[in-house]
Design a protein that fits this description.
This protein is 45% helix and 10% strand. By secondary structure, it is mainly α. It has one domain. The strands form two sheets. A two-stranded antiparallel sheet has the order 1-2. A two-stranded parallel sheet has the order 3-4. Strand 3, helix 5 and strand 4 form a beta-alpha-beta unit. The protein is globular.
């Protein structure tokens, strides 16, 4: 992307996220109440992730697992993970748990489109080639998400993310955003 395109992308991220938070304020309020009623613990889940240029930041999501889930299981979620709450299953299948990430986009830590941010523990295992994903801001959705979400192994996701970085454009971002809607509605690869 040219410098001008990067400025346009960041402007779209910022304006789109503010607009999204305004439109989604009531649904997000309802989700917050449902999360609180479904199980003990905070409404929002905060977790450290690796962002652009390897900088750490906190990602915000609606909590989808039982309180202190990290103490009773592996750091990564597995299919049919018993730590996922009833409302959490719905939020994950529909990706509604990720709506608070719009705050990270406004703060400049994330983009609407880009590779998903990884936890530091997993990032330590990445090869130099795989760490190329750190050249751009991580995204709420991305090229690998529309091609399988959690059904893909990490090396396969990273190949797709690196392809995206090499070919990224405003047109490709728009296509990914549109495609994300159909992928989320289908519920494929979400758990």
């Amino acid at each position: 992307m040219t410098s001008t395109q990067k400025i346009i992308k960041r402007s779209i991220d910022y304006i789109g996220s503010i607009f999204g938070l305004i439109i989604l304020a009531i649904p997000m309020g309802i989700i917050a109440v449902l999360v609180k009623l479904d199980s003990q613990g905070p409404t929002l889940f905060k977790h450290e992730r690796v962002g652009k240029d390897g900088k750490l930041f906190l990602v915000y999501k609606f909590r989808t697992m039982v309180k202190d889930a990290g103490k009773i299981g592996p750091p990564l979620t597995e299919k049919n993970d018993p730590r996922i709450t009833r409302i959490g299953k719905i939020l994950r299948r529909t990706s509604l748990d990720e709506l608070p990430e719009l705050i990270n986009v406004i703060r400049g830590k994330m983009s609407l489109v880009g590779p998903r941010p990884e936890i530091p523990l997993e990032m330590e295992k990445y090869t130099d080639w795989q760490k190329k994903v750190l050249r751009v801001r991580p995204g709420i959705t991305g090229f690998s998400q529309i091609h399988g979400r959690q059904d893909r192994e990490i090396p396969s996701k990273l190949r797709l993310d690196n392809w995206y970085i090499k070919h990224q454009s405003l047109k490709l971002d728009l296509w990914i955003l549109i495609k994300t809607v159909s992928v989320v509605l289908s519920g494929r690869g979400a758990y």
